[in-house]
Amino acid sequence: MLERGDMAAKAERVEARLTPVQRRQIEQAAALSGESVSGFMVLAALERAESVVVERATTVVAADYFDALVASLDQPDEAPRLARAARTARRRRRIAAA
Predict the structure, then answer these.
(1) CA distance 73 to 49
(2) How many helices (H) and strands (E) does the chain have?
(3) What Å distances lie between residue 1 and 18, 29, 43, 60, CA to CA?
(4) What is the pLDDT of residues 41-97, one digit of tens each?
(5) Whose CA is closest to 56, among 44, 64, 48?
(6) Contact 26, 32 (CB under 8 A)
(7) What is the pTM of this model?
(8) Nearest to 5 by CA among 30, 39, 36
(9) Which of 10, 9, 29, 33 minimizes the C-alpha distance to 18?
(10) How many whole angstroms from its chain centre is CA 80?
């Protein structure tokens, strides 16, 4: 989530190496936006970060695939070893009732 008006104390720093052309372009854009160069760069980086996270953390699948996936979650799967372990645990009652 973008934090445009974050009033928390800012102690962290990030540095970047720029060509003179890149610096002038960023300075011009910041001036046109009425922001400091630092503020402009932070906001631009946050917008890009949010975009990348949303893009990479989201999986898009076809509707029929999604429906089949959800339906499969409703179907119990056999787990014979787990069932056998549960039966054994019930027979052996390791914790005695007080």
Answers:
(1) 33
(2) 4, 0
(3) 27, 23, 11, 21
(4) 999 999 999 999 999 998 889 999 999 999 988 887 788 888 888 888 888 776 555
(5) 48
(6) no
(7) 0.56
(8) 39
(9) 29
(10) 36
